[in-house]
Design a protein that fits this description.
Distance between the termini: 36 Å
Oligomer: single chain
Strand content: 15-25%
Mean pLDDT: 85
Shape: elongated
Helix content: 25-40%
């Protein structure tokens, strides 16, 4: 009852001025207690669907429902970033399956931008061109990479960064999303260290297409999350609102979230935390050796019996050593590495 989540947030979505349906979807799941906070953190997600009829609406809804559910389930076996990635990959497979099963939903897709705040910091997952920003003081940074044709061409050097390509390359052509293909590549970044006052914005391109980055910062800096989200949506609508608009504003309000993060163990990936069993052949060898030792004692060969007991002990020791090495990553192909912030 005394648990404080340490954040203030608001999540709003609007159909816009020209669309009849809202193909955006979102999730905002705050940990209800200390145990949940330490296990899975706070999760926020924006999904922007695409497809004819109700396909886009279905795709984004599937994503916003499945990713949080699968993420929580995957945490039983994997670290936070691995669980998040696997949740999105499995969600992609489900959206793809649903799209293939019905002609009305064929090739439906959706973006997915996910922010998870855990004791070690902020972890981000990205597919598509929805965005996640962080405002720290007066500095606004876009933490995600747009999987769009324009951004990909600029990243590869085919277009200069300051080139106006609006008349050459449509901005709404995306190169990666959930659904159309059976597999998907997910960008995972973090953990980004948190500071008191950090404000995160998750939004669909219905917002960023109408509101410039230079305008986002002052609004986020000077208004509480709920008012900021509403003003951003209203501003996009005042400028025509040609697309659905979704905005989630999350602000870190508790300095203890930042202080405690310094004492948290690092996030490690590539380790399987499931209990490892001693292989069955080890138990068989132990049983044979012990049985042999009993027989040798009966026939009054104590030295040979002692040797059999030693062999049984070595087998058991080898089994425990095998188990310990897998748990520590010593002999596993999946090596343990520490995640470091790239920003």
């Amino acid at each position: 009852m005394n648990f404080q989540p340490g954040i203030e947030y608001s999540s709003l979505s609007d159909v816009g001025m020209r669309r009849k349906t809202n193909q955006d979807s979102f999730s905002a799941i705050v940990a209800p207690d200390e145990a949940a906070w330490r296990q899975r953190g706070h999760l926020f997600m924006v999904a922007d669907g695409m497809g004819a009829h109700a396909a886009g609406e279905l795709a984004s809804k599937l994503a916003s429902d499945h990713v949080p559910h699968l993420y929580r389930k995957m945490l039983e076996q994997y670290s936070t970033p691995e669980a998040l990635e696997r949740a999105i990959v499995e969600t992609n497979a489900e959206v793809h399956r649903r799209g293939q099963a019905n002609l009305d939903f064929y090739s439906m897709g959706t973006t997915a931008s996910v922010l998870v705040l855990v004791p070690q910091g902020a972890i981000i997952a990205q597919v598509g061109d929805s965005r996640i920003y962080r405002l720290r003081g007066s500095q606004l940074d876009q933490l995600t990479f747009d999987h769009s044709l324009v951004w990909e061409m600029r990243n590869s050097g085919q277009l200069p960064a300051d080139t106006d390509v609006s008349h050459m390359v449509p901005k709404n052509i995306i190169t990666r999303c959930l659904g159309p293909q059976p597999t998907v590549q997910v960008d995972i970044e973090g953990p980004f260290p948190l500071e008191a006052g950090d404000t995160f914005l998750l939004c669909s391109d219905g917002l960023t297409g109408q509101v410039r980055d230079e305008e986002l910062g002052p609004i986020l800096a000077n208004l509480p999350p709920r008012e900021a989200a509403q003003v951003l949506i209203d501003l996009a609508n005042l400028r025509g609102g040609p697309d659905n608009i979704t905005a989630i504003v999350v602000r870190v309000t508790d300095p203890s979230m930042v202080a405690n993060a310094q004492h948290e163990p690092p996030i490690r990936v590539g380790m399987d935390p499931r209990p490892q069993k001693i292989p069955l052949p080890v138990w068989i060898v132990m049983g044979v050796c012990l049985l042999g030792a009993m027989v040798l004692l009966i026939v009054q060969k104590p030295l040979a019996a002692l040797a059999a007991c030693i062999a049984s002990g070595l087998a058991l020791g080898g089994g425990w050593l095998h188990k310990a090495r897998i748990l520590s990553g010593g002999v596993s192909d999946r090596k343990s590495t520490r995640l470091n912030s790239s920003h």
